[in-house]
TrEMBL record:
UniProt protein name: Transcription factor protein
Protein's organism: Ciona intestinalis
Keyword DNA-binding: yes
Gene3D superfamilies: Homeodomain-like (1.10.10.60)
Record-level Gene Ontology MF annotations: DNA binding; sphingosine N-acyltransferase activity
Homeobox domain location: 68-128
Amino acid sequence: MEALSQWFWNDWFWLPRGTSFASLRETEGRYAQPRDLVALLIWGGIICVIRKVFELCLNERIAKMMGVKNKREKPKHVPILEAHFTVTSQPSDSKIAELAKKVDTSQREVERWFRKRRNFEKPDMVKKLGEAAWRFVFYLFIFAFGGVTLYDAPWLWDTEHCWIGYPQTIWPSVYYYYMFEGGFYISLLLTVTTDVRRKDFYEQIIHHIATIALISFSYISNFVRIGSLILIIHDSADVFLELAKCFMYAKKDKWADRFFALFVTSFLFTRLFLYPVFALYPSFVKLRRRIDPWPAYIIMTCFATILQGLHVFWSYLIIKMAVRVLVTGKKAKDSRSDDEDESDVE
């Protein structure tokens, strides 16, 4: 086991030439170490527990405060239709006609029954609101924590300080900033199958994996300064998105549109300007002036590029949706959100 650990945590792979984990351990001050990733997993579990307590204690209260109720009712139990629903939730027209004869009712009634049954399987509004409220609370907390942590950091105002004196000791507050962020995205990955399913489900998984990989690789390679900039850039827009969703689920369209406009503005600014200029450029160009590339750095920049690709993809969806709102006058709706209920109107 010791041999496997030494092989995996190879200095040549994880650190630039002339640096070793042993030398970092022997140097005065705290440096990021591979063993800290165990704490990252622990924080992921802790945040899952905190979220569960939040949902149990506050979901119903938040829903009541915002006037959100579960109006969805399960359709009348019809054994023949229930049995077929387990096979397919959307039967063909010919099958609907066949089922209508078996239960002695009209095809329209059978269609309505399947529509109501499909809607009943979808997450209720209280669950949707609870998830959005939890993410809003966390993003607001972590953005504030990151702002307080980095306000006095020299690398926030001049990215050259990300590499001056590399590798640098890690501030205790930056250590916890990493633990909270990494733990949160691990918790999202652990609950992705039980959360409300979004249209971009697979892109969402790729995003979480890429984010966790970036956090892990940047931490182990002592890239915590540039990594902390990437984290705070990403957190700002999500605060507005989750708050807009809360008001959207509460049918408070004016407030939802206002916060969604703030989200669109902040998302495009942070993802298409701040991230490439103040995160990608320093990583690709400024670092190369000081240090030769090494394997972990190359992999990390690949994940950072994947993340930017997702930013461009989501920006396209958001701009497309914003144009549709301006042209048609329809209310804003996040293109990445889950599908809404099917209408019972014939």
